[in-house]
Amino acid sequence: MSSKKKNNNSNNNGTHLKQNHLSAKTSNQKEYIKSVKENQVVICSGPAGTGKTHIATSMAIMGLVREEYEKVIITRPMVQAGEDTGYLPGNIREKTAPYLRPIFDELLCYVSNSDIITMMNSGQIEICPLAYMRGRNFHHCFIVADECQNASEKQLMMLLTRIGKGSKIVMTGDATQSDLQHRNQGGLNTCIDGLQNIDGVGIVKLTTQDIVREPIVERIVTAMEKYHSSND
Fold first, then answer.
1. In the chain, N or C terminus with fewer CB closer than 10 Å?
2. Residue 146 and residue 45: Cα distance in Å, rounded?
3. Which residues of the chain have pLDDT under 70?
4. Per-residue confidence (pLDDT) for residue 82, from 0 to 100
5. Which of 39, 48, 66 has its CA nearest to residue 172?
6. Strand 201-205's sheet: what is its strand order?
7. Is 202 helix (H, G, I), strand (E, B) or coil?
8. What pLDDT is stored for residue 180 in this prediction?
């Protein structure tokens, strides 16, 4: 692995961090950041707006620029949310672009668009759909696995067993927003329950109290949770 440069804002390739600090806005977010630093595997669940993807992506790109990792791997299930947009043309990068746009928006908080393109072209940032993970092993990588509520238990276990030497993986998701058919849901919760108290694995749960988007988002999420609870 390359030598670490934790205190630098740029690397030998000229990639410069716009900001070099990640601040927790809630106590649970603080615990999330601490867990990512201390564990090789972190599973973070919680509703929209709680910073699940932002924190994982921030720590990944900062670690890459500081040369703590050789690559950042970005993956997620290619499951559409509610509506079918049909066949997407192009190569893997072009096909996955609509699904991964939220992660790229987070990357732009730390590096420029041209830096992202350069790092993708050089292989420092790799897009790897979950379906293409089988048979691969990732060494000295920071893996961000987003929207894991849309993966089955079998898929998530396949993903977890891709971890190689010097790698870290953060899996995020909201089990209440799965777009899978009902019979295939539950993989994320099963992994959370099954991997409790395993050395090197951190389990973090964020709640509506950790929502840091516009206040209306918290009110919407809280209202819908109460509605479903009263109608169960």
1. C
2. 10
3. 1-13, 78-99, 178-185
4. 39
5. 48
6. 125-127, 71-75, 141-145, 168-173, 41-45, 201-205
7. strand
8. 53
Provide the pLDDT for residue 93.
62
3-state secondary structure of 40: coil
Give the number of residues written for the chain.
Answer: 232
Q: CB of 43 within 8 A of CB of 174?
A: no
pTM for this entry: 0.81
- Burial (CB < 10 A; 0-12, 13-18, 19+), residue 129, is middle
Q: Structure tokens of 114?
A: 């041209």
What pLDDT was estimated at residue 135? Answer: 87
